[in-house]
Amino acid sequence: MDLLIAIALIVFTAWLLQFAFRLLRRRSAAVRWWVAFALLVVFGMGMGIWKGIYCEYRLSRHVRIVGFPLPVAVFVWEGDRWTDFVSPEFVAYTKVAANVCTPVSACTIPLLAIFAIVHRQTIDGRHRQEARVIH
User: Fold this and answer.
1) Which of 23, 71, 102, 111 is 20 to 30 A distant from 60 in Cα terms?
2) Widest distance between CA atoms in the chain
3) 63-66 and 73-78 beta bridge pairing
């Protein structure tokens, strides 16, 4: 099940980035939008690398989890030592990739929403002005 969720997150992020790129290109976005998009993608990747590889948190006194939002490894304190429960290699790498992709999506969605709102206002304003001129 984790593998399906990880693949879905990767596919969603790929779709979102491709959608954002096409939207900005189709609407002839100004340079500031492209710079903001690039900075947010880089920031999201950096945050995702930290979350996916280096982030470790304790679920309880006896349970540590590596990776967020999808756990790559779980460590459980059993008596006098930590026992690790690691996903199979392919699943673990897919989870790390999904953990890196998740903040990229989270960072770019607000930019797309703001771009859509700003762009809609300019289109509505142009149509209103043209309608006044015609009548």
Assistant:
1) 102
2) 84
3) antiparallel
Cα–Cα distance measured from residue 79 to residue 128, given in angstroms and rounded to the nearest whole number: 73
Element (H, E) at 63: strand 63-66
Look at residue 6 and give its three-state secondary structure.
helix
Q: Identify the sign of the CA torsion 120, 123, 128, 131.
A: negative
Residue 119 CA to residue 115 CA, distance in Å, equals 6
96-132 confidence digits (pLDDT tens): 999 999 999 999 999 999 998 888 755 445 555 554 5
Q: How many CB atoms lie within 10 A of CB 73?
A: 15
Neighbour-count burial for 91-104, b at 16+ CB within 10 Å, e otherwise: ebebbbbbbbbbbb
Predicted TM-score (pTM) of the model is: 0.79
Cβ count within 10 A of residue 40: 20
On average, the pLDDT of the chain sits at 87
Tokens of 19: 């959608």
Interval 8-25: pLDDT, tens: 999 999 999 999 999 999
Residue pair 64/82 in contact by the 8 Å Cβ criterion: yes
- What does the domain layout of the chain look like in residue ranges? 2-134
